[in-house]
Automatic annotation (TrEMBL):
Keyword set, alphabetical order: Antiport, Ion transport, Membrane, Transmembrane, Transmembrane helix, Transport
GO biological process: potassium ion transport; proton transmembrane transport
GO MF term (any one): antiporter activity
Signal sequence region: none
UniProt similarity note: Belongs to the monovalent cation:proton antiporter 2 (CPA2) transporter (TC 2.A.37) family.
Residue intervals of the Cation/H+ exchanger transmembrane domain: 18-390
Transmembrane segments: 6-26, 33-51, 63-82, 89-112, 118-137, 149-177, 189-210, 230-259, 279-297, 309-333, 345-365, 372-391
Pfam families: Na_H_Exchanger (PF00999), TrkA_N (PF02254)
Cellular compartment(s): Membrane
PANTHER family associated with the record: CATION_PROTON ANTIPORTER YBAL-RELATED, SODIUM/HYDROGEN EXCHANGER FAMILY/TRKA DOMAIN PROTEIN
RCK N-terminal domain residues: 431-544
Name the record gives this protein: Uncharacterized protein
Membrane-topology descriptor: Multi-pass membrane protein
């Protein structure tokens, strides 16, 4: 019997090539994403050899977009965003504006239309969620203040891009493009935009009021059955059906539907399990998406337009980075934070590809523009790991040679110094607590209930501001800097409590503290059993590890209960 094997050929060749080049990229310590894009380029119609079916690839890419956006929604944390909102919200919006403006100026200089320039600029302004999370995770920065600011910044960028994806089809004609097939072009453009925003608002309201309750309820019901397959199917069905339903009922993009599906799944008590169960499937379709994007790329542009590519890479890696760094320093965060955020955003990824594909479908972008965006992504993602590696040496160089940078870092910052009205009693025999996370907060609250004097050193400026409004002595900055510990009056402190953090930072803080106050007692919260063992061997302070302490407390409780049982009179 005859077989229609186009899809199978595409999957076999696409996955095979993605495996080979993904492996090569990983061996070269590059994101595998680069390998997937190159795999797509090799099997594209623009290169000799095996040619994949581009129509099928586009349909698979649509699924890839849905699952990518579903993953973005699952990573979206409103609480994380609110923690850093004062810097992430204005910073991301201003940085998008700067990068978009740079892209528009350059592309209009090339003779492009306003609509093309706008989409092109927007495509260069948004960083890749996949690349950023991996880069921060590999360096153990995800839970740090710098990591939270970078992720919060990215979340705002993602939200802006989601809004752009929703509004672009409605404004395509106004920008000089054409409407998508099946769209009513007879009505006014403003009515179209108004109806689009109304539909989006209706969809968001539906998801937040009904979906937020219904989806977790269904997941809970299925989880009780104890079937792993059914649970995975429920999560996948929720992602795909909500994405399609948003398009069919509300007329909004499938990408937005998938994003909100991820958000409501995250609200469930089973969100971690849902993330683990669907991760392989999401990654498979993400790979297909990147392969299909690579299939659209024409390598000839590397020879034909090298200066254009250089300009694009410069906007992404220099323009965006400097804008982000300037904004972080403006908000009076330290140079280390500025460099981390700048490095995090010095690349573009999946949202850029989605925007470029939509721009092409709406007649707002040319294949040349799409190729430039893809080339910019390839180079920026490849070089991003080197930029991260350069953070420490650049920071050292700046601090050693630049007096201006040192002034910028701490100059005139009221939160970097304890206020004059702080009671002098707090500055002698106090407990200095480094970090006001889950552990630091509980210790501080317990001590303050017992009227024990506490001074808190915390990197997050917003937390410090909040603490000061509550009348709690707090100072902003990295505790690895001597100035921060001096401001916390470590030289007169009785105890130093260090919240879980990187062991190198712990060493640095303890060394500075011992120099300023040789008699100080040090208590350290370890993040792992191995870390606790290392600290004990080095004898730099008293170590507490969560699981050990829990086991001790439970053991004491059990022994007390047994003792009470033995003491009670026999019946």
């Amino acid at each position: 019997m005859p077989h229609d094997v186009n899809l199978i050929i595409l999957l076999a060749v696409g996955f095979g090539m993605a495996l080979i080049f993904g492996y090569i990229a990983a061996r070269l310590r590059l994101p595998p994403l680069i390998g997937y894009l190159i795999a797509g380029i090799i099997i594209s119609p623009n290169t000799p050899g095996v040619v994949g079916d581009i129509q099928l690839a586009n349909q698979l890419a649509e699924l890839g977009v849905m699952f990518l956006m579903f993953g973005v929604g699952m990573h979206f944390s409103l609480s994380d965003l609110l923690q850093v909102r004062r810097i992430a919200l204005p910073g991301a919006i201003l940085q998008i504006a700067v990068a978009t403006l740079l892209g528009m100026v350059v592309s209009m200089f090339w003779g492009w239309s306003f609509g093309s320039a706008l989409i092109f600029g927007l495509s260069l302004s948004c960083a890749s969620t996949v690349v950023l999370l991996k880069a921060l995770g590999d360096r153990g920065l995800l839970d740090s203040v710098n990591g939270k600011i970078a992720v919060g910044w990215l979340l705002v960028e993602d939200l802006v891009m989601v809004l752009a994806l929703v509004l672009l089809p409605a404004t395509a004609v106004l920008l000089g493009g054409h409407a998508l097939p099946g769209t009513d072009t007879s009505q006014s453009i403003w009515i179209t935009i108004g109806l689009t925003l109304l539909k989006v608002t209706g969809f968001i309201a539906f998801m937040l009021i009904i979906g937020k309750r219904l989806v977790p309820m269904i997941m809970q019901f299925v989880a009780r059955l104890g079937s792993r397959e059914l649970f995975t199917l429920t999560v996948v069905a929720a992602a795909v059906s909500i994405a399609y339903g948003s398009y069919a009922v509300f007329g909004v993009s499938m990408a937005l539907g998938a994003f909100f599906a991820g958000m409501v799944v995250k609200e469930s008590d089973f969100s971690h399990r849902a993330e683990e169960e669907t991760l392989p499937l999401r990654e498979i379709f993400a790979i297909l998406f990147f392969v299909s994007v690579g299939m659209l790329f024409d390598p000839r542009i590397l020879v034909e337009e090298p200066l254009h590519i250089l300009a694009v890479v410069a906007i992404i890696m220099v323009g965006k980075t400097l804008a982000a760094m300037a904004l972080v320093l403006f908000f009076r965060y330290p140079i280390n934070t500025a460099l981390t955020v700048g490095a995090s955003l010095a690349q573009i990824g999946e949202f850029s590809f989605i925007l470029a594909t939509l721009g092409l479908a709406l007649g707002l972008l040319t294949p040349e523009a799409q190729n430039l965006i893809l080339a910019g992504a390839l180079f920026s993602i490849t070089l991003n790991s080197f930029i991260f590696s350069a953070i420490e040496p650049v920071q050292r160089w700046i601090r050693e040679r630049s007096h201006l940078a040192r002034l910028l870092e701490r100059s005139g910052d009221p939160l970097a110094m304890l206020p004059d009205e702080v009671d002098q009693e707090y500055l002698r025999d106090q407990v200095v607590i480094i970090g006001y996370g889950g552990v630091g907060r509980r210790i501080s609250e317990n001590l303050m209930e017992q009227n024990i004097k506490v001074v808190i050193a915390e990197e997050n400026r917003e937390i410090v501001e909040k603490l000061r409004t509550q009348g709690i002595a707090a100072v902003s900055g990295e505790a690895t800097e001597p100035n921060v510990l001096i401001q916390a009056h470590i030289q007169h402190a009785r105890l130093l409590v260090i919240s879980p953090m990187d062991i190198l930072d712990i060493h640095r803080i303890v060394d500075i503290s011992k120099q300023l106050n040789p008699e100080i007692q040090v208590l350290i919260c370890a993040e792992s059993k191995e870390e606790a063992a290392v600290i004990r061997e080095e004898n730099i302070g008293e170590v507490f590890y969560a699981k050990e302490e829990m086991a001790k407390n439970m053991s004491h409780h059990i022994l007390n209960q047994i003792e009470l049982a033995h003491q009670s009179p026999a019946h």
